[in-house]
Design goal:
five-stranded parallel sheet; 303 residues; 11 strands; single chain; binds NADP nicotinamide-adenine-dinucleotide phosphate
Length: 303
């Protein structure tokens, strides 16, 4: 269940939004975050949720046509992206097409329709060399192809959008589909040995909480016709190992994961060692306090 506080703000946001009967376009609705938006309590029924095949953000002519067919769209929530970090490492062209060109096309689409664009980016725009949480003012320096393409997508929006908000988030988990949490539980149930890295630190974030907090901020976002960037994730920090241990403990799995270092776990993409996001700016501007990641994990496991 969503926390009482988020729920209250969400309903307030919903009432204010429905006052003007918004026509929302949710792109990437079948993904982890898209599905979390769809599951928000009382999410408007006027929502458009084209599939990837019906609306491809990499094809501007596709967006043109869709805009002409749906001229009353007044809010675009983009959850679409290429997110397969490992495969993208050997396919920079696809990373650029989906994550930069896709964002560029959406900026043009949003400007033309005069509809604000809500977009998501990642902690992987940072190199991970800092030792305190990254703020929105810290310089980006991505160290893998996915991070570079997401960073380039941010720049398209920050430089050319008329009304847009980018939310940088991290380590999304939920009870749906394949993500770190569902994979850990599946492996534990099948008795598979777990080797988890201790030297990458980040902010585990519930996709449901993220959708809920973004939705809570929507009335103000619609009012403030600016282009802004926020960091938004659950509170606290953890290593992948801490997160795995907590998931296993809370789901009563008796398996003890083996703690390893990143150099013992070969991956194509290098990940930042420290990618904790500072969410102060969002908290202050919208008076929303994110749940701790432990509460978020507990909520997911109770679904
Ligand atoms: N997952 C994380 O841990 C994480 C962390 C930080 C930031 N983020 C960001 O959060 C956002 C949502 O991530 P997610 O994990 O929910 O992604 P996801 O589960 O991989 O879902 C991506 C969605 O986008 C759709 N899509 C992909 N390419 C598209 C295209 N060219 N045109 C239209 N739709 C397309 C996919 O549809 P098909 O499956 O049909 O292709 C799917 O519905 C992304 O911007 C991501 O970069 C994610």
């Amino acid at each position: 269940m969503l926390s009482r506080k988020y729920q209250a703000i969400t309903n307030k946001g919903f009432r204010q939004m429905t006052g003007s009967s918004p026509q929302i376009l949710l792109i990437g609705a079948s993904g982890q975050l898209g599905r979390a938006f769809l599951d928000l309590p009382d999410f408007p029924s006027t929502i458009l949720t084209p599939t990837h095949g019906e609306l491809d953000i990499t094809r501007s002519e596709n967006l043109d046509k869709y805009g002409k067919e749906n001229p009353n769209i007044d809010l675009i929530i983009n959850c679409a992206a290429a997110t397969d970090v490992e495969n993208l490492e050997s396919d920079p062209t696809r990373a650029d097409l989906y994550n930069r060109v896709g964002a560029k096309n959406l900026v043009e689409f949003s400007n033309r329709l005069k509809a604000p664009l809500i977009h998501f980016s990642t902690d992987y725009v940072f190199d991970g060399t800092k030792q305190t949480p990254y703020t929105e003012n810290d310089a980006t320096n991505p160290i893998n192809i996915y991070g570079k393409s997401k960073c380039a997508g941010e720049e398209e929006i920050l430089n050319h959008a008329e009304h847009a908000v980018i939310f940088r988030t991290s380590w999304l988990i939920s009870h749906r589909g394949e993500n770190f949490l569902t994979k850990i539980i599946k492996k534990a149930r099948s008795g598979e040995a777990l080797r988890i890295v201790t030297d990458q630190i980040g902010c585990p974030t519930s996709a449901d909480d993220l959708a809920c907090m973004v939705w809570a901020a929507m009335p103000e976002i619609k009012e403030n016709k600016t282009v802004t960037l926020y960091h938004l994730c659950n509170r606290g920090q953890a290593s992948w190992y801490d997160l795995a241990k907590f998931i296993l403990e809370k789901s009563s799995q008796r398996i003890e994961p083996e703690a390893i270092q990143s150099n013992q776990f070969k991956t194509a993409a290098t990940r930042p060692a420290y990618a904790v996001l500072d969410t102060e700016k969002f908290q202050k501007e919208f008076s929303v306090l994110p749940k701790t990641w432990k509460d978020a994990v507990t909520d997911i496991l109770n679904k």
